[in-house]
User: What shape does this take?
Amino acid sequence: MPARTMPNPPSTVTGDLFRHAVTRLPTGVAVLTTTGPDGPVGCTVNAVMSLSTRPPALLVSLNATSRTLHQILDTGRFAVNVLPWHARHLAGQFATGTPAQRFAGVDWRPRHGMPVLTGVCLAAVCEVSASTSMLDHTLVAGTVTWLRTGDHPATVLHAGAQHPLTA
Assistant: This one.
């Protein structure tokens, strides 16, 4: 069944009010990485979800103006690196600066041609299987071609602060 587009009703919800409200939605913190002409590139995201088990696939959402998004679409591959609590500082590091600054001092290894951060809770290399623009973001579906998990407590973002997720 094709997706339906509904007309947007007038909204009294401002961007600032919505931004504040969605901070109450707990979410994991991840770094997406890929390769560019000058080396690895990456950015911090909190919109990652499991999409399918057959085939194994993840769905990520990036701002349409993201440099990392454009490299992912050019390369056709990306890695998802879910940050553990002990590496939560990487969320800030990968949110600002040039690609070289983002990877400065970061331990990573190439896996299936993608830069994968070491010591993360989950690392998955994905082949882009589809992408679609939605509002000011682009959704990218990736089929998982390589996977590694760790036993570290994950970093969760809630109410504008990072928290360790413990069992």
Notes: The longest strand covers residues 122-134. The mean pLDDT is 93. The helical segments are 15-22, 67-75, 89-93, 99-103. Residues 47 and 59 are 8 Å apart (CA to CA).
